[in-house]
Amino acid sequence: MRVLKLRRSDLKRCAELERVLFPGDDPWSREMFAAELDMGHYYVGAYDEHDRLLGYAGLAVVGRPPHAEAEVHTIGVDPEHQRRGAGTALLRALLARADEHRATTFLEVRTDNDTAIGLYRAHGFEIVGLRKRYYQPSGADAHTMRRPPRTSPNPVEEAG
């Protein structure tokens, strides 16, 4: 598996995966992904040995050090390829980009998504807030999580 800059030709597949991954909420459309790329946000894809998209992730960075902030906009992995390292690889790519900007990173995650919360905690995130009825139309709550910037090249391995 390789993590590369997300290709525009994969945006339709991203939207298809969104509908599978987030059926009870408002999944992103191809146009929404295109708008994110047009705004210059950082999006990556996880690709298999046949160059098929397994998952995608996006990050926005605002401000400059030492006050830069980053926000994880989305991470999604094809259900057939979950628990094989794609989500971890995508998150690490986003965090490397945030760390280049020395940015504190924020994200929202469903309070009932224990797998994702565990992944985020393992990468230095802590829960700092609760957003009631954040996801629509399901009305699911979300935790806000935060991770301080890292300056070392492999912060996860060093924390181990």
Automatic annotation (TrEMBL):
InterPro entries hit by this protein: AcTrfase_RimI/Ard1, Acyl_CoA_acyltransferase, GNAT_dom, YpeA/RimI_acetyltransf
As recorded in UniProt, its EC number(s) are: 2.3.1.266
> What protein name applies here?
Ribosomal protein S18-alanine N-acetyltransferase
Write the record's keywords in alphabetical order, separated by commas: Acyltransferase, Cytoplasm, Ribonucleoprotein, Ribosomal protein, Transferase
Cellular component per GO, a single term: ribosome
SUPFAM superfamilies found in the cross-reference section: Acyl-CoA N-acyltransferases (Nat)
Q: What class of enzyme is it?
A: transferase
Which terms does the record give in the GO molecular function aspect?
A: protein-N-terminal-alanine acetyltransferase activity
**N-acetyltransferase domain location, by residue?**
1-150
Gene behind this protein: rimI
Tell me which family the UniProt entry assigns to this protein: Belongs to the acetyltransferase family. RimI subfamily.
Q: Which Pfam families match?
A: Acetyltransf_1 (PF00583)
Q: Where is this region: Disordered?
A: 138-160
Superkingdom to which the source organism belongs: Bacteria
Q: Which organism is it from?
A: Saccharopolyspora rosea
